[in-house]
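User: Structure please.
Assistant: Input sequence and predicted structure:
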Amino acid sequence: MKPHIVLDTNVLVSALKSSSGASFRLLSLVEQDLFTVHLSTTLVTEYEAVLKRGMTLLSAEEIDDVVDFICSRSVLNKIFYLWRPVLKDPGDDFVMELAVKANAIIITWNVNDFKQAVWFDIKVMTPRDFLRFLEVLP
């Protein structure tokens, strides 16, 4: 059974800043059907807002293309409940809610921000650790 994941925004930012890191490698595997990416409207909105703040060298149109690609390869989840605040940064709670709804692993560079995920039996991994889990990295 392939794993289900939620990509935190920092992973996407990292992937679009450098083509040499684990985040970029993970993003490049999205179309290979090794895992299922889960999204919510809130997460897609955050992707667009953060990426369009000039965090990468991509144009707004290129960012739209990347987000559209991710959306086309993902499962959209509707979230009907809110558990706020649960995390140290309440701005991350919607990521946790999505992971609980989808029974998904949270992929983030800020693992410490999701310590409370254990309360919900949700795993949290860095992109590098997830690639090792998939056995695509040594």
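The chain has six helices and five strands.
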